[in-house]
Structure formats: C-alpha cells, structure tokens
Design brief:
GO terms for molecular function: rRNA binding; structural constituent of ribosome. This protein is α+β, with helices and mostly antiparallel strands. It is built from three helices and eight strands, in the order αβαββββββαβ.
Length: 132
C-alpha cells in the first residue's frame, strides 16, 4: 500500500491500536519512523519497538504501554507538521504541550528529539507531533 505521509499513518495506527487496547502494532519501517518510535520509547509512552527483517520491506513493531487496569499511557497523539504545511520553530519558541505535561517530537539538525532536549541544546526544528 502506498502511503503519502508515513508519519501520519504511524501515528494513526498507534492511536487506533491504543484505543482498541491492543498490545502491539506493526507497520512498514523507515528510518524516520524508527526515530519517532525511539523518542516515544525514551519519553515512556511505549514499552519498546523492534524492527523485523521481513520481505519485501522491514516491519516496525511497537509494543504499547498501559497502566493499572489497562489505563492508556498515551491519552492523545496529533500530527502537527504535514506535507502540505510544514511547521518550524526556533529554540526559543518551541511549544510546551499541555503546559509541559506532554511532549512535542522535534526533527532537528541533530536528529529527532523531544522538545525538552531541543530546548536544553538550544536548537529548533520541524515540529513533527504532539503526544500527551
């Protein structure tokens, strides 16, 4: 299946699997999607991820994280910078999601990172998504 925006497709798959209470979700793997999954894992929104070497394309499998009584860790996830309208931000103007309770995933010249890390390093970039 041809997807125009793989990041948006990834976030939608995570959102749908999370609301359905699934343990894990799989999708075609790219370097960008693996980096987004790495940031989500570092911030504690997912248990982990693994890249399976399948044919014809590698598959990214993300293990979702739930709290007590299957309470969702990811309450919401939203794509910000889209292919039709890119959103960039300087280091001083990086957004705070829910007053600092959420995380913004930023694509910088030094790789994908959360807004907190980008703010401490003093670099801006493209705002990929908000997670809370």
């Amino acid at each position: 299946m041809n997807v125009n925006d793989p990041i948006s497709d990834m976030l939608t798959r995570i959102r749908n699997a999370n609301s359905a209470g699934k343990a894990d979700v799989s999708m075609p793997s790219t370097k960008v999607l693996v980096e987004v999954a790495r940031v989500l894992a570092e911030e504690g929104y997912i248990e982990g991820y693994v890249v399976n070497d399948t044919k014809p394309q590698k598959t990214l499998v993300i293990t979702l994280k739930y709290g007590k009584k299957r309470a969702r860790v990811i309450k919401g996830i939203k794509r910000i910078s889209k292919p039709g309208l890119r959103k960039y931000s300087a280091a001083a103007d990086l957004p705070r999601v829910l007053g600092g309770l959420g995380t913004a995933i930023i694509s910088t010249s030094k790789g994908m990172m959360c807004d907190r890390d980008a703010r401490t390093q003093g670099i801006g970039g493209e705002i990929i998504a908000y997670v809370w």
